[in-house]
């Protein structure tokens, strides 16, 4: 039998072990945080400046002025006449071929060396060569799976693109908008989507960290492909496949980056007020965006990869909302297309296959709140109160904004326009 003293010792030992683990985690994180620079998920940073003009007419709407009207986002949707003409062929989505578990068990995909001999290929930049050589390798084994993640009635699944090194972002999301909760009887679940760490230095440590984090929180899906910028499209299709297998009952999906602020209450209010039941895809949508042809831009695409003058309408990958059945159709549509290096554009191409037009909504600010970074609007809690998603915040800013919004914030009908 344990006496009190023994029990105390065990407790003490356990506490110390836990503390050690936390310290190790923090040290690892701190020690590497400065090396993170080479890959970040700030997808559209290049669009704040002059390049923004390249990206099509809708960018002009992001003015540095704003009227806060209570609940304005409920009805203030700008969307073109909505096409929901999905042909009968398309409705037979994935019938009969649904896997019941993640069925990819080995990575045996060699480079497509056929390309190397072709003239147009030789002229490409290295990153595009790399992308094209492995473009046909579509699915990879799963490292951390959670087949149980969607068990029970989940109304809203929030999936967040992250990378091993961004531990602190995941941590703050878990403590703020991403925490598991039930709002008005509707359950929310958050998962993080990861590939393999891409940094050569400390790659092993980062993977250990992910393993540890997954043990504690059980909210990480990780696949065995390199977490690189051009592989974000792989992350997209891996999630769609995973969702198709494991989440038949989920009603809605919010998908976004790990540096966004999300107002979950507003998502639910939006959904309650939204008439549209089928093929719902809403976000910060760009219509008529042009492919960027300036080589120094992060989103540069050579003619040989995409030769049309416009992209199909697509939503910024920073955060968008879609319904579960559309996600299943998107999985099917993705399989009919070749991979494209920009993940949100790729999803726009998939929507085009399905003849679904995404809806643009003012409450989604994934291309930055306002172009002027020093604008006070970026720090204005009353503004955030009316938003659904805002890109891009530091973990500390996110925490601060969250605390402000949870306090008894009194917002006037109209905030002072800056
Ligand atoms: C991988 O594929 C190559 C040819 O495509 C084959 O020769 C090799 O045996 C395969 N390896 C494994 C482990 O399946
Ligand atoms: C390379 O070319 C050969 C012959 O044309 C073809 O059979 C093969 O499928 C090609 N490989 C890839 C990865 O496309
Ligand atoms: C994507 O991941 C695969 C598998 O890890 C890797 O072979 C490929 O080089 C990566 N592609 C890019 C463009 O980083
Ligand atoms: C554009 O690309 C497609 C497929 O890659 C090709 O068939 C077509 O000829 C190209 N068009 C122009 C104008 O280059
Ligand atoms: C950005 O906003 C700040 C404060 O509102 C203002 O002082 C500054 O002139 C603005 N900059 C530009 C380029 O508009």
From TrEMBL:
Pathway(s) this gene product operates in, as recorded in its UniProt entry: Protein modification; protein glycosylation
E.C. designation(s): 2.4.1.-
Role: N-acetyl glucosamine (GlcNAc) transferase that catalyzes the transfer of GlcNAc via a beta1->3 linkage from UDP-GlcNAc to the non-reducing terminal galactose (Gal) in the linearly growing chain of N- and O-linked keratan sulfate proteoglycans. Cooperates with B4GALT4 galactosyltransferase and CHST6 and CHST1 sulfotransferases to construct and elongate mono- and disulfated disaccharide units [->3Galbeta1->4(6-sulfoGlcNAcbeta)1->] and [->3(6-sulfoGalbeta)1->4(6-sulfoGlcNAcbeta)1->] within keratan sulfate polymer.
Entry annotated with the keyword Transferase: yes
Entry's localization field: Golgi apparatus membrane
Single GO molecular function: hexosyltransferase activity
Protein topology in the membrane: Single-pass type II membrane protein
Protein origin, superkingdom: Eukaryota
Entry protein name: Hexosyltransferase
InterPro entries: Glyco_trans_31 (IPR002659)
Gene3D superfamilies, per database record: 3.90.550.50
Any GO BP annotation: keratan sulfate proteoglycan biosynthetic process
Family: Belongs to the glycosyltransferase 31 family.
GO cellular component: Golgi membrane
Record's keyword terms, sorted: Glycoprotein, Glycosyltransferase, Golgi apparatus, Membrane, Signal-anchor, Transferase, Transmembrane, Transmembrane helix
